[in-house]
Amino acid sequence: MTHSYTIETFALCKEYGSTVAVKGLSLGVRQGEIFGFLGPNGAGKTTSIKMLLGLTAPTSGSAKLFNQPLGSDENRARVGFLPEHFRFPTWLTGQEFLQFSGQLCKIKRATLEKNMACWLDRVGLSEFQHAQLRTYSKGMLQRIGLAQALVHDPQLVFLDEPTSGLDPVGRRMVRDIMADLREQGKTVFLNSHLLSEVEIICDRVAFIKHGEVLRIETMSELNQGAARVQIQAQGCNAEVLAGLSRRCQVLAAQDSHLTLSVADLETLPEINRYLLENGVRVYSITPEKISLEDLFLQIVGTDGGL
Ligand SMILES: Nc1ncnc2c1ncn2[C@@H]1O[C@H](COP(=O)(O)OP(=O)(O)OP(=O)(O)O)[C@@H](O)[C@H]1O
Fold first, then answer.
1. What is the pTM of this model?
2. Which regions span the lipid bilayer (predicted)?
């Protein structure tokens, strides 16, 4: 199956003096996916986004957005960006701010008017559109920042910690917006430390550390893949345990409690059948999915990135 890549990077590097912020980043982000970009503090996530946006030049390597070199004028209007630390023009009202952002992308006035009303409503700020941004709360600024990233109807949006400062309702709103964008065939590049949210919404995730991609995972495969399994059963003798070990990894076996590690949840029916055929009385089989947080710590380590 061929994929059309919205983002492709080829050994992208960025050095600041002796600091290597990004070290040979190579990845492809497909059109219509929500791609999570995960890594510890200082891993090079923001620097990578800045290079992709043409805000800072790579030291070496290259990248393409929509099959065009970085920084092309044409791409600028196709891309939206919500930075982590936005310096908002606080003297503007919410509406003026969206108008200004939309005008920078040179979209037609009538389209901009329509999009502004739509996004102000979607982020729950219609009522506050005529108030200056200086009067907005942290969460309201985050909401208007998101509307700003989307008001020109971009094909690709970079969201850097979009839910920081948002209440649970706001977080759900951001997730729903991302899901809608995907539905419309748009691409979302999400930089977030909130792994419980990433887990729910992303299609694929890249783990980076010290400016390098350590691993790329497909979330659906992760959800169906390896798991730890707790089994309550009676009658498991040494012979049965030896047979089990040929089918999966037996992590612990105590009295009537077994802990197994399986490479694929698909092996569970076979394990159940094997136990029953050998006279074991099975009371429960409970798979425990490996959380994205566990995987993050496993791949990136617990030492942090700094
Ligand atoms: N303008 C700069 N000048 C010098 N060093 C920089 C600059 N910007 C980033 N760095 C360094 O590059 C490395 C990567 O920083 P970056 O901000 O990309 O990390 P990050 O993954 O976004 O981190 P966080 O999760 O903390 O936001 C860090 O070591 C940082 O100190």
1. 0.83
2. none
